[in-house]
Amino acid sequence: MKIKYLLSALATVAFAQNSFAQYAQDALRFSTFQPGATARIRGIGNAGTAVGGDLSSIGNNPAGLGFFTRSEFSFTPEYNGSNVKSSYLGNNMSDKRSAVNLSNASIVFHSRVNSARGADKSKGLLSFNFGVGYNRTNNFYENITYGGQNGGNSVANYYANLANANSVPKEELPQEGTLQGIAYDQRLIDLYNSSNSYQSNVRGSVAQLSNTMRTGGQSEFNLAFGLNSSNKVYIGGSVGISSLRYNSINTFTETGTASLFENGNDVNRNFTSDFIRDQSTSGSGINVKLGMILRPVESLRIGALFTSPTWYNIDDSYSEGISTQFDNIRPVSDRQNYDFSYNLRTPLKLAGGLAYFFGKYGFISGDVEYVDYSSAKLSFNGDRDDNTEIRRDYKSVVNSRVGAEARLADSFFLRGGYGFMGNPLKNGGADMNTVSGGLGYRFQNYSLDATYTHVKTSGTVRPYDIGPATPIANLNNRFSNVYLTLGVRF
């Protein structure tokens, strides 16, 4: 990691980011992506490992490209709606956010191999198809708001703990440019000779309000091939060029009363203070996928997929600061910036799937996927313990997806699906559950598919860390997404 500031400042950042942007948490955030897909595959719960013949194969199991008998193009815009309900110190709140993005754009070029006149069209290598696709694999868009009345502690206790943890001698001021130094300069903490330690100047109950705005996502550009051997064995591979962008702005506002030492006396003054933390992260990476689909009989397909780790190069910019105003005194603000570069290796993934086709009437499909999140690895130009935290706090999971498609008429299709994404945390956290449903219409060389998905999960967040007394906000996240795919064969 490229360090532009003193190691003591770096230690402060690592501690300050414990509940907000710690690198071990970002390693998990950027490792939980899923394959991008068309509305059709989204409609069956993303259970497409063994289905084949869909442009989602470019970003999922490339062996599925071997099922194409014509060239095809499609694009899929998506609508994302986020609703986060919070509970903090007995107070309930909620916040929403929505965005429109491009979910998928793909094209496959069909090429027959065994095309000689009189040749057996059912044996040997029959086709070699090449695909190019863009997939959005993760969305970070959401707003999170929580707040309440805290009669037990203040964020100023956190600043004081920072000063005391760094063993600042009582005859010295906290280091300039650190968070505790900013808090001292703004009179939120002070040194009390009776205890020989820094303490909070805040007295009594305080009103607290946190607002976080997150944007960005992950995407992948894939170059893939799929071949068909005797209509029985389908093999494919792809190279994925990944990119990520994550932005988070958090403002934690506290309003209350502080006791200040002025002119030899303790004076109580009303105050409002904002603890501001911003993160901007971007990166690019590469991965490889190898897949196979076997069709032992006409109605059954068995799929397998290996997805290598994604090797990311990441640039991270983090800043934190405090802005405080006492009574009608002009507010004082200060901020410190920290810029780092590091490498991330996400976990590899192993997936298997089955799909059973009922002739022309439809099919059912199911997938299982294994991911060991504790195998993610961060690489820095420096000595850090984030990988120890990854191994300590994360675990392996088995994700599952199931779905079905039914032909209602010659050109109309009905789809439904369910997805389960296991909780990667050893302690706390929650599973993620997705329910989906969709419709499809085929006419001549064109197709139109629409899908709605509803995602539920939950979690906790800490505005600051002061040990067992740290206040905790409980979050219930709901995401509503709509996908629309337009396709054409040529």
Automatic annotation (TrEMBL):
It is a multi-pass membrane protein. One of its GO terms (cellular component) is cell outer membrane. Transmembrane segments: none annotated. Belongs to the OmpP1/FadL family. Keywords: Cell outer membrane, Membrane, Signal, Transmembrane, Transmembrane beta strand. It comes from the Bacteria. It comes from Mucilaginibacter aquatilis. GO terms for molecular function: long-chain fatty acid transporting porin activity. This is Aromatic hydrocarbon degradation protein. It is found in: Cell outer membrane.
